[in-house]
Amino acid sequence: GSPFCKIAREALVELELPHLLHSCARGSPKRQEIFKKHGLFQAPYIEDPNTGVKMFESAEIVEYLRATYTLYPQYQNL
């Protein structure tokens, strides 16, 4: 697994957000699905069904999750 995926996954677990993890190993047809949908493949990738947000980049994903799902946003960077 990618260390960047681990960062995003840790944020999901830390915030106790229910999520589905889809493994996309090299050569996996799942990679092709994402590539066809977005014109590129990059991991991690998140689709938030609550807001419709779709994004790549672990740092941006973590920032988004904390801003969206933290009860006390002023403490999100502690």
TrEMBL record:
Highest taxon above the source species: Eukaryota
Domain GST N-terminal: 1-73
SUPFAM superfamilies associated with the record: Thioredoxin-like (SSF52833)
GO cellular component: chloroplast
PROSITE patterns on file: GST_NTER (PS50404)
InterPro entries: Glutathione_S-Trfase_N (IPR004045), Thioredoxin-like_sf (IPR036249)
PANTHER family referenced in this protein's UniProt entry, alphabetically: GST N-TERMINAL DOMAIN-CONTAINING PROTEIN, THIOREDOXIN FAMILY PROTEIN
Name used for this protein in its record: GST N-terminal domain-containing protein
Organism this protein belongs to: Aegilops tauschii subsp. strangulata
Organism taxonomic ancestry: Eukaryota, Viridiplantae, Streptophyta, Embryophyta, Tracheophyta
